[in-house]
Amino acid sequence: MATSTQSPKQQTPTITSLIHMAITLDVPDGWRELHGSEYPDILAQTDSLRSDDGVHLTAFLWVRDHGTDAVDVVIEEEWTPTDIDPSEYANTAVPVIDMTVTLGEAQRAVDDAGDAWLSWAQTPDDRSA
User: How many CB atoms lie within 10 A of CB 104?
Assistant: First the structure.
């Protein structure tokens, strides 16, 4: 059975290095950049207080490489504390943001995703009004 002898330095570059070689992506307004993150594909993070009892929602904006001219722009959420039932809280229908775009469309996709998530996060709890 053959084993790979490829060293980590010979692996396919991450999206961070591809972006730096091809284009530079700016962090969307209202988000903070994450330099030196243990996850190099995370471009930005933002936090939102979702209730008066201290439940927070942290969002991470990822840009993941497809190995071609395409990238995924994804926003993932993390609820704190983790043992809550999000359905007990108003306005928990978090928008699904997961799109695949070309490198040329990446900045617009990042901006649109960031704006869409913040718009949802800043909407009052009562959406039926």
Answer: 10
Task: Report the length, in residues, of the chain.
Answer: 129
Cβ proximity of 61 and 110 under 8 Å: yes
What gap in Å lies between CA 36 and CA 10, rounded to an integer? 21
Question: pLDDT 10s per residue in the chain (129 long)?
Answer: 444 444 444 444 444 444 444 567 899 999 998 766 677 788 899 887 666 667 777 888 989 887 788 899 999 888 787 777 766 655 555 667 899 999 899 999 999 999 988 887 776 553 333
Q: What is the pTM of this model?
A: 0.68
Which helix or strand (DSSP H or E) is residue 120 part of? helix 106-121
Residues 47 and 34: beta-carbon distance below 8 Å: no
Q: How far apart are CA 124 and CA 129, in angstroms?
A: 10
Domain spans of the chain, in order of start? 28-121
